[in-house]
Amino acid sequence: MEIIASLSTIPKRLPTLITTLERLSEQEQSISETHLNIPYFNLRTGEHYSIPEEIRNFPKVKIFRTEDYGPITKIATTFRRLIGDQNTFIWQVDDDIDYPTHALRMLVEGMQIGNQKKIICRHGGALGSGFDFAPWWGKSEVDFMEGFGGILYPPSCILPNFFTLLDEVNEIEYLRLSDDIFLSMYFKFIGIPIFLYNPMSESNPYQLDNFSSSVLDPVSQPDQRENYRKAFNEMRRILDKQTHPK
Description:
The structure is a single chain. This protein has helices spanning about 15-25, 55, 75-80, 105-110, 160-170, 175, 180-190, 225-245; strands at about 1-10, 35-40, 60-65, 90, 120-125, 135, 140, 145-155, 195-200. The chain is an alpha/beta fold and about 250 residues long. It has a single domain, classed as Alpha-Beta Complex (Spore Coat Polysaccharide Biosynthesis Protein SpsA, Chain A). Strands 1, 2, 3, 4, 5, 6, 7, 8 and 9 form a nine-stranded mixed beta sheet that branches. The longest helix has 19 residues, at about 225-245.
């Protein structure tokens, strides 16, 4: 199984990014290489990126400069590069999470259950009618996935329309920042199921440590409900337009 890790970062996290790369290199399930998607400048702050030499020279790390698409930059430009690849799985990770050594192995175990083409997430659940997120654990199909725990995508899981949608989303600030909404709704739209695989135990807690924040799961906080509502409704409008073009 050929697997690459894919992530992005923001300028203020560059000094600690090396720690994340080290965690990825220590995985029990090995990765072929790590793709680091770094914008030319940060669209929100206007900051440019000064990439440390230790990151440039880190083993098996390939740096790709890109437009800033917001949080989805971590995976969107990798999708574009590998759109015709039928062999490579992509492990989406965040730049500030302390991934335990079994993190990727666990997702691979989930991917190998059955023959159905699917996406495997460590954190997912249901987005309720009040747009509050109800996290689940264990093994089940879900309708909403959170990216920070890691997501494993099968080869060639997106369609060309992904990039048309990405360009449209990139023009809407609150949706541009809601990559979990975009990705979850997109894969439901094209008919690829999302499966949660996170069997909890003492050695596999639900939450993962965060290098840069005391809030382990910020997107599940109550003040995110309005952001979810706006992003969900706008994404639904965009997808409806795909289904029923004028």
